[in-house]
Design goal:
Elements lengths: L1 E5 L9 H15 L3 E7 L7 E4 L2 E6 L4 E2 L2 E2 L4 H4 L7 E6 L4 H12 L3 E5 L8 H11 L1 H8 L2 E4 L4 H4 L10 E3 L20 E5 L11 H12 L6 E5 L5 H10 L6 E5 L3 H10 L2 E4 L11 H8 L4 E4 L5 H7 L2 E4 L4 H12 L5 H15 L2 H15 L1
Parallel strand pairs: 1-2, 1-7, 2-4, 7-8, 8-9, 9-10, 11-12, 11-14, 12-13, 14-15, 15-16
Antiparallel strand pairs: 3-4, 5-6
Length: 372
């Protein structure tokens, strides 16, 4: 099968959607499919290259609107691809909209991977509202199948309820051969948080975690929060830590390389993902990565993995924006009131049983086969 993937960006760009498309595409290549990716050239890379068997075409872009690169040559370059099916990706439009146009023009099936709704802050909020009332309707109508990564999102999103007959649920995955427990020195009472630190990722809830650390510090003096990630809000979060008088308890490590990320998961005592927006949080790949490394995880109840965490006793789940509940859960785990070793083992088993990229690719392939 010839598959055209149209994410707005692609590896080596760091982001949840980019990570998903890269790993899905790699597994589809391993299943003997031909996969082409067309995307914006960010960060600057070779314009045409082969990445793990995936044919990648990168296009120059003029600027960004919100978090979307505008690539003027995309409509013309897409005409040159031979494909059986197009897989577009939201919440970054433009590429998805042109995918819908060419799907209709060429009579080829369109699969839309819908990770979360398009929202924004400030001016981006009004742009998102206009898009959701216009182009999004065409895109959803044109899509032959809509993939969501957690079943509850059908109820969270105000835009998907009329398309239930098209929707299929395919979760995210983890490379369990890469993300695994290592023999490293664990830093006692250390908490790991990982995200891009910009306005588009404020929904990850770091400010609530910082406030929770202030409460945790009252019981565990040497608690240490390790924040991974960079972005234009880095200084804002550093200032917030200072104002909360936890600057000695919060370390901001900036961008963490692919080579180091597994070590970071293994060094920590606990991983926390305190997301606050059900319309923006898709699933929480970072939580799965931590589970694969046999680490206890705390999330809020809107994160896609939350149900499985409770079912398998792999971690704790708290209400969103509840600083006191978050602090209480952190103290419960760090003080040894629960078996972290058992949580870790349960989490690793959960991921290997249910959340491998091979399984994700097989489920996606079945959807493609329905249409081709």
């Amino acid at each position: 099968m010839k598959i055209l993937q149209t994410p707005v960006r692609f590896y080596p760009y760091t982001g949840g959607v980019e990570y998903y498309v890269y790993n899905l595409s790699r597994e589809l290549v391993n299943m003997n499919h031909e996969v082409n990716v067309i995307c914006a050239n960010e960060p600057p890379s070779q314009e045409e290259e082969m990445v793990d068997g995936i044919n990648v075409k990168r296009l120059p872009y003029l600027f960004k609107i919100a978090n979307t690169n505008l690539t003027p040559s995309l409509p013309f370059k897409m005409r040159n691809f031979d494909y059986d099916i197009i897989n577009a990706h939201l919440p970054t439009p433009w590429s998805a909209d042109w995918s819908a146009f060419y799907s209709k023009l060429n009579g080829k099936p369109l699969v839309l991977s819908y990770y979360n709704d398009i929202v924004g802050n400030g001016a981006a909020h009004y742009i998102a509202q206009i898009y959701n009332k216009t182009f999004l309707k065409f895109l959803l109508n044109q899509a032959d199948r809509i993939i969501i990564i957690q079943e509850n999102y059908l109820h969270f999103s105000p835009y998907l309820k009329n398309y239930a007959d098209k929707i299929r649920v395919v979760p995210v995955g983890v490379d369990v051969n890469r993300f695994k427990p290592l023999k490293v020195d664990q830093k006692e009472n250390s908490i790991f948080f990982l995200s891009i630190l910009d306005e588009f990722h404020q929904y990850k809830g770091l400010e609530y975690l910082l406030k929770a650390i202030k409460l945790v510090k009252e019981e565990i003096k040497d608690v240490k929060l390790i924040v991974g990630g960079k972005g234009n809000l880095l200084d804002y979060y550093k200032s917030m830590a200072e104002s909360l008088d936890i600057e000695d308890n919060a370390e901001f490590h900036g961008f963490i390389s692919e080579e180091k990320i597994v070590e970071y998961y293994n060094h920590c005592s606990l991983f926390v993902l305190p997301s606050i927006s059900s319309s923006q949080e898709g699933f929480g790949i970072v939580a799965l990565e931590a589970l694969a490394c046999e680490k206890p995880v705390i999330t809020t109840d809107i994160v896609g993995i939350a149900h499985d965490l409770k079912e398998t006793k792999s971690g704790l789940v708290v209400p969103k924006k509840d600083v006191e509940a978050l602090a209480e859960a952190i103290v419960k785990i760090l003080n040894g009131n629960v078996s972290t070793d058992k949580m870790g083992k349960n989490g690793r088993k959960l991921v290997t049983d249910k959340y491998t990229w091979k399984r994700v690719a097989e489920m996606t392939e079945e959807i493609y086969k329905e249409l081709v």
